[in-house]
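Form 7-S
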Amino acid sequence: MKNEKKLEFTEGSVYKNTSLGGRDQLIETTGTFKGFISMGVDETGLLIELGKTHRNMERKIRIVPLHVILLIDVLDVKENEKKDEYKDMSHYVG
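Output:
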């Protein structure tokens, strides 16, 4: 387990999530993660660009509120291209 990388949401990765819909309905969303969005004061959602399995909705953006997500399958991971800006920076503690 020492060599395992920390898994995190990365833009460009492909995920499939199952979330709660209305009236005991489950909604499956498969697509490319585009980021997070703030919804109101204290709610956050995932921005997902829908994939081919959504046919006529392909390439549309779906917002999935975090509180309704039941599970997330990681289908394809894109490496995080953002570099840690503070990694080699010395810090002042006064």
